[in-house]
Amino acid sequence: MTTTTTARTSLPRRLMALVLVFMLVGGALRSVEAGCQNSLKLALHNVFLCGVISYAVALTGVGLIFAVTSALSPHRHWPSRAELKAMPRWAPFGGLTGGAAIFAMITVASSVGVSTFNALIIAGQMLLATAMDHYGVMGFPRRRLTVQRLAGCVLLIAGSYLMAKY
């Protein structure tokens, strides 16, 4: 855990605009994902099989992207044994948390609606992310909790409540 606050790296304006658009598209695709998961669940009547199929398709897609980028850029860095040994043992398990999120999406999004589901997912992400930033855990730079950041979390929770209620 780091004890100093790290300043945010500033990107050129055009690159930052591209990054923001990329994040918005990625967020929008989460709603499409929820629709795909719900359709899969309705067709198969088996949430576990839906999860397996979903991850198999994701693995295939990532494998294809990896193959194409490796072919286009063959001089990519591969980790050494020392780098692999130095890696935290918990680092590869991010996929399990993604699996939990997929399982939640498959089982409950249709019950509460995709907008409420996403609002609550985002609120949960922000609460934990704010704590992770504050303490600078898991390799992230420390960004102290401020009144403004706390207000953002409160507004997200309030928005999630409004999405769920109405």
UniProtKB/TrEMBL annotation:
Keyword Transport annotated: no
The UniProt record lists the keyword Lipid metabolism: no
* Pfam families in the cross-refs: DMT_YdcZ
* Coiled coil residues, start to end: none
Q: Which GO terms describe its cellular component?
A: plasma membrane
The UniProt keywords, alphabetically, are:
Membrane, Transmembrane, Transmembrane helix
Q: Where are the transmembrane segments?
A: 44-69, 147-164
Spell out the PANTHER family in the cross-references.
INNER MEMBRANE PROTEIN YDCZ
Q: What is this protein called?
A: EamA-like transporter family protein
Q: Which organism is it from?
A: Nocardia wallacei
